[in-house]
Amino acid sequence: MNLPLADAAWLKEGRLQRLLAVLNADGEEARVAGGAVRNALLGQPVADVDIATTSLPAETVRRVEAAGFKAVPTGIEHGTVTVIVKGEPFEVTTLRSDVETDGRHAKVAFGRDWKADAERRDFTINALYAEADGTVIDLVGGLADIQSRILRFIGDAEARIREDYLRILRFYRFFAWYGTGRPDAEGVKASARLKQGLDQLSAERIWSELKKLLSAPDPSRALLWMRQSGVLTRILPESEKWGIDAIHGLAKAEAELDWTVDPLLRLEAIVPPDAVRMDALAQRLKMSGDERVRLTEWALSDAVAANVTELELARRLYRGSPQGIIDRLKLDFAGARWKAMQEDGALVQAGHLSRLLAFAQAWQKPTFPVSGADLLDLGLEKGPAVGQTLKKLEAEWISKDFRIARDALLKQAADLLENPGAG
Questions:
Q1: Do 392 and 338 share a domain, yes or no?
Q2: Residues spanned by the domain of 384
Q3: How far is Cα 48 from Cα 109, in angstroms, rounded to an integer?
Q4: What pTM did the predictor assign?
């Protein structure tokens, strides 16, 4: 079954059409492959455009350079050349078949068989090709699965996973983004049977895939099936006794309140706020420094009760981590909104938390107006007493809601110097 994409603006774009013309000349063939075709058929944005070709890598390089394009051998041993046409990069890959696999990487043989190239790919919806005129070529039943929003392995699910265990995570990630209803039963069963193969993956790849999954509009169904199959516990044991129910309310709040989808906040929704375990999790998955800090600061921040005053919240924001507290408030507010669908009392709580969240997001940390240099100017000698006096003054300033003026604080400092036993 073929469908036209002739009216797609990205396909008609001049640089792509020129490159396809160069690669299609003199008996060779080239087609757009994979994600660009999938997204176009699903009505989703097309970003990167990959091309499959019958020409061997060396011939691809020769052709594109002769046409005045730049060729970068980014993965030439696997058949991939990045071609830059007037600043726009395109990955061009020779048709391949797998000769040997080890659960993560494959040795490939180049060929000219489009069906063999399609059948080595992971899912049917990722194995579609488009001609330069917009004709879609479907060799594995991907169009039917696009139309029914089914994510299905090409061929035997277990065999495809054994070729590359990363496909387990890709199965749930693509289901989160493109699937509806239940995921393919054979895919779920195979992922459950082979989940130990995930131990072969690098921490960076696991976190990268999990983050992409958590960035889907609503990852809750994918997470549910990952939990059912044991895959989630395998890669995120911290979630095992905590639960994933909070993700429902968070996804709903993001959609209805126009919050930016935040994969780290979503991760916080399904793991316990235990600073030691979160630091270990961040190290295990080799998160960035900023991600690690945010995760641990969230875990260290106490929950904010709905009846807390704005003044008390301001004090907590000043002394603690504003981002950690905001994350706590967002999760609790989203949870209260979700709970309010069944309980009227939760609606009141949600209202209070909404007010506190707005306050926290608008809050700007005030600057304590006294420094150690000010105390030295007053005659205090260098040493621990400087820091101790500053702490006393700052505590008083905070207790008065940051409203004591600098002159008044300096007068208090002078009084402390004259009467060290005071305060």
A1: no
A2: 372-418
A3: 25
A4: 0.89
